[in-house]
Amino acid sequence: MKHTIFCMWVALGVALASAIGMVGNAGAAEALTGQTLKAVKARGQVVCGVSGNAPGFSLPDSKGVVRGIDADTCRMVAAAVFGDASKVKFVSLTPQQRLTALQSGEVDMLAANLTWTMSRETVSGLEFAAIEYYDGAGFMVSKKLGVTSAATQLNGASVCMLAGDAEATAQNYFGMHNEKFKAIVFSDGQPLRAAFLAGRCDVYMTDASTLAGFRASLGPRGDNYILLPELASREPLGTAVRKGDDKWFDIVRWSFFASVIAEEVGVNSHNVDQMLDSKNPAIRRLLGVDGGLGRGLGLDNKWAYNIVKTVGNYGEIWQRSFGVMGVPRGYNRLWSAGGLMYAPAMR
Hints:
The chain is α/β, with parallel strands linked by helices. The protein has 14 helices and 12 strands. It has helices spanning 2-32, 35-43, 69-82, 98-103, 118-122, 150-153, 165-176, 189-197, 208-217, 246-264, 281-286, 294-297, 303-310, 314-321, and strands at residues 46-50, 59-60, 66-67, 88-92, 109-115, 126-135, 137-142, 157-162, 181-186, 203-207, 225-227, 235-242.
């Protein structure tokens, strides 16, 4: 009997300690949430980490304005928070710098050709808000090389790649196909591309979208190169924030989803004002006419209207980032058109 009573008290103590711990953890999470939004508002701009040298993702144009889908993802968040898509400071980061920059608070969010992986969420303290581009590691070669397949014809090839994930991807891929290769590793994309064009390596290996953008940027010279049909990896490229601030996570996630939903329901930067009179409940909620959904984000109810009005829907962003370069949308089509791009309901 005494033993039974003792066990009951032990069990009660464990349960009480667990409950106290849960309250403590909840309190800590509550203390963190909303801090990024407060800092962003006080600063007057969103600080966004980008690669800064990737066509289609983030690359300055002739006037120095950063263009691409990553850059516009940052602008979406600025439009949601401030109603002004220009209130963004872009910080160009190398693959070695980007995780540390987010972890340390140097940037508020990261949209820098970043692949969503398990370890980045479970070890590195990042949380991915959305997948903005479904990609995979591909191969570009000169037509003069006479190669049509990475899986059977690249044994002994020299391969230019960025330091980091690409090295492990190459090891896995070439090992699987029993091919040897020589890795030529760079810390930045610009010298890598220059080396490839100069013939220092046989193959340029990186995300297929980046290869397509690079080939298009070469103009007529691009016809001298081909993209091989194989992909060496699955690369869901996403936007990341620091773990612990759920409010900021929600803002970044739903800013992107708003652009996808806008394309789904046929709202774009040109017709958004006319759509304010729509009878479609989904459109009225999206544009803040009904529903009051901005309150849950700590934003104005016109937050999504401001995104579409000043940045556009996902299809518009895609077209000016990749469509103009002749890149097929592929997996990045809306789910209703056979792609993987999908957003939860906004209600």
